[in-house]
Amino acid sequence: MPVGSIPVLLIEDTPSLARVYAEFLKKDSHTVIAVETGAEAMEQLKDGAPKVVLLDLQLPDMNGMEVLRRIAAQALPCAVIVITAHGSVNAAVEAMRYGAYDFLVKPFSADRLVITVRNAVERLRLAQIVDTFGKELGRGRYHGFIGSSLTMQAVYRIVDSAASSRATVFITGESGTGKEVCAEAIHRQSQRAAKPFVAINCGAIPKDLMESEIFGHMKGSFTGAVADREGAAARADGGTLFLDEICELAPDLQTKLLRFIQTGTYTPVGGSKLEKVDLRIVCATNRDPLREVEEGRFREDLYYRLHVIPIHLPPLREREDDVLDIARHYLAEFAAEEHKGFTQFSPEAEQTLRHYHWPGNVRQLQNVVRIVAVLHDGDTVRLDMLPAPLGLPGAVPVPPTAVAALPSPVPAAPAPRLPAPLTPETIKPLWEVEKDAIEDAIAACDGNIPRAAALLQISASTIYRKRLAWQAEGKL
User: Could you tell me which residue ranges the Response regulatory domain spans (predicted)?
Assistant: First the structure.
């Protein structure tokens, strides 16, 4: 896509500055539309076409923040770059909460302006590719999944391909990412869709009852077995058996499951007759199965029998704007259920939902929206309605049981580094200390430079400028 194919809307009421900015951008092959008021800007944005917006906060007819709020409220496909003076950096940081892409502090160089606009154009271009790709495939929703991100499109394609096969599917992913939804999608997309889908959570059933749950038992085979009982394998005959948290299976049962997969036959607990079934096995875990094998907790031969078609479900934090689509879906559902009037999230609430790291994934998001629907009312979910740790200080916390635990393979947080005694040999140059602090902050914020800048209490433009300088000097 050519650089100039996404125009730049310049909202600046000082004609001399507008001319200078426009010349800088035209030299870089950008198409520039210059206006002086917020009303003119909104008129230009009515067509809904993607634009990079250069927005001065001080306008003659309205505050630039109001323009930004309207862009966010109407979900216009814009990347907004706020232009601000040194004295109003705090206002620019506030603008980031309303969805601004970046900000420039006056005075700025031509190179700084051009690089920022180029980055904004590239962001819009990638967003268009994602939107077009999702629309072409019609995959905003798919068998219980909600989301059109590229990572989920890949999952949908694997499910499509795997569904027609008889091969065993092994689903991995953090808690709350939708592993059972994925298993049901495979079943519903397959030729077995008209037959039963039977799910068993191997971590929720006592180990001494697990064999009976899968293979059934005969009357009198153990205390409490007052009648013959079919197991999940018999109930799933012709359909799909889903074994969630497969790594929780006891070693002796792993041996029996391996034999069952190899032969398709089993003997109920306390029985003597060999039973045969035709079913497909889909299993899942939130652990690292290879590590379980390496540490001797899971049979290697069973792993390779099960791990035929792997599907990894991405965590919610890697699914781009899917979080907003999912949140809106649950808001409509829970508002109707609780007889509340909610219809939307405020721009600040949407920004918070988008940038939160979601350790409990979709399950945690579902609980957050339910708490809002139960405890509040209105037509718009505001930032102060979101429970802690998302909302403002003093917000109602999410109960511990509402947040799914992180999966076991996630490494523990590193112990804090204790400063070593300084010697002349260990003293670092000041620029290197500063660089380490900035890069560590960016990494902690998952690459979100504006968020890292806000936490460091500096401007995002300062980070961009310093990183460019370090790169030019070969220090990055």
Answer: 7-121
